[in-house]
Amino acid sequence: MRILLDKFSKSFGSTKVIEDMNLEVASGEMLALLGPSGCGKSTTLFAVCGIHRPTSGRILFGDRDVTNLPSQERNVGVVFQSYALYPHMTVEENIGFPLMVKRAAAPDIKKQVAAIAALVHIDNLLDRRPSQLSGGQQQRVALARALIRRPDVLLLDEPLANLDAKLRLEMRSEIRRLQRETGITAILVTHDQVEAMSMCDRIAIMKSGEIVQIATPSAMYNDPRTSFVAGFLGNPPISFIKGTAFQGAFVSGDGHLKVPLAALSGISDDTPLTLGVRPEHFGTGGDIAVEGRIVFAETQGRENLYDVALPDGSVLRSIQPVRNDIKPGDQVRWMLGSDAAFIFAENGQRL
Ligand SMILES: Nc1ncnc2c1ncn2[C@@H]1O[C@H](COP(=O)(O)OP(=O)(O)OP(=O)(O)O)[C@@H](O)[C@H]1O
Ligand SMILES: [Mg+2]
Questions:
Q1: What is the per-residue pLDDT for 300?
Q2: What is the pLDDT of residues 178-211, one digit of tens each?
Q3: Is 43 in the pocket of ligand 1 (CB under 6 A)?
């Protein structure tokens, strides 16, 4: 079921949170709404879900205008960060609850609960109460409860935020598997870029109530339109260095680093610029030599992070296979790949 937001706006009193947002989620697609805290992700999701009424604009499911329909009439499945399971009910009763409300026949409910519980791999836990489950198991119950009515759309607001790192990893692929198997259209709200990149077909990055870029995870990573987007994706994050244009090259503050870039042909000298270099593009490979001093080294198991301070004080981060010949304080001369570097104007737009 396609979801369409057409000039969707939402204010709380005089506070405008979202203004004229247009967004289309294709049928069967899983889309991430990604952005910093307070940018309006949940507000958007709540409007799709029917908890918030838009201040203006329309929301369509397929060709059906659902803007003024209450949540119960939209056929949406919703999972929030707090799973909100009913503590006094068993897992079976929790999952079957939406069907009970619809007054389905008991044997029918039992059959459907069994099927959906098998789908999320909790069919052996049906007699337990929520307090007797791990966080991940509770999360699966919440998912099963959201899916049992065969909703047209699945809406997830930070569903993994309460899980530990290992469970989060497991549930990430589990939710994606379920979404693919059921072919349901889904929106995932998250501020975790790894979650958005690994789970979704496309990502919409939001900032202050606006979608600033919408693209597939790899297009977003390799072709960010702004420094905000480039800085939001990537772990460890991209490094930024301030400088100016000079004869088709980026030149760092003290003139120490000079990077010729095709994007700068036609840009006037002394135009303020920011160079963005991802950590995988600074180290042993590349065409531009950079001299600096190691100011930070961290082992991440298979790889090491190194922060290299340039003479003007700016810092470039590098990620490389673990090597034992480098320690903080060492002077290094490493290579930067200029064809992978991004260049941004002062307003953050990529050139
Ligand atoms: N009921 C409300 N009344 C007034 N302001 C609200 C209300 N709900 C949200 N806001 C404001 O709208 C803005 C967006 O909130 P929203 O909850 O959508 O952010 P978010 O992107 O989901 O953030 P987070 O990642 O922290 O959950 C915030 O500035 C918030 O204070
Ligand atoms: Mg939120």
A1: 85
A2: 899 989 999 999 989 999 999 999 999 999 999 9
A3: yes
Q: What is the distance in A from the centroid of ligand 2 to the CA of 36?
A: 9
Atom 25 of ligand 1, nearest CA residue: 37
Residue 278 is predicted with a pLDDT of: 97
- Does the domain at residues 3-229 carry the CATH identifier 3.40.640.10? no
Q: Does the domain spanning 236-345 belong to CATH 2.40.50.140?
A: yes
In the reported structure, the alpha carbon of residue 33 is separated from the centroid of ligand 1 by a whole-number distance in angstroms of 14
Counting atoms of ligand 1 from 1, which one is nearest the CA of 209? 14
- Enumerate residues with CB within 5 Å of ligand 2 (an ion): 42
Cα 112 to Cα 312: distance, rounded to the nearest angstrom: 65
Tell me how far apart the alpha carbons of residues 12 and 7 are, in angstroms, rounded to a whole number.
17
Q: Tell me the pLDDT band of 174, cut-offs 50, 70 and 90.
A: confident
Q: Is the CB of 17 under 6 A from ligand 1?
A: yes
* Atom of ligand 1 at shortest range from CA of 191: 25
Q: Which atom of ligand 1 is nearest to the CA of 13?
A: 4
* Secondary structure of residue 344 in the 3-state scheme: strand
Q: Is 15 in the pocket of ligand 1 (CB under 6 A)?
A: yes
DSSP at 338: G
Query: Quick one: pLDDT at residue 80?
Result: 85
Is there a shared CATH topology between the 3-229 domain and the 236-345 domain?
no
**Residue with CA nearest ligand 1 atom 4:** 12
All structural domains of the chain with their residue ranges:
3-229, 236-345
Nearest atom of ligand 1 to the alpha carbon of 45: 18
Q: Percent of the chain scored above 90 by pLDDT? A: 81
Helix axis angle, 135-147 relative to 91-101, nearest 10°?
20
The Cα–Cα gap between 30 and 80 comes to 16
- DSSP structural state of residue 37: T
Residue (of 78, 165, 89) closest to 132 by Cα position: 89
Identify the band that residue 84 occupies on the pLDDT scale cut at 50, 70 and 90: confident
Each residue of 121-157: pLDDT tens digit? 899 999 999 999 988 889 889 989 998 988 999 999 9
Residue 53 Cβ contacting ligand 1 at under 6 Å: no
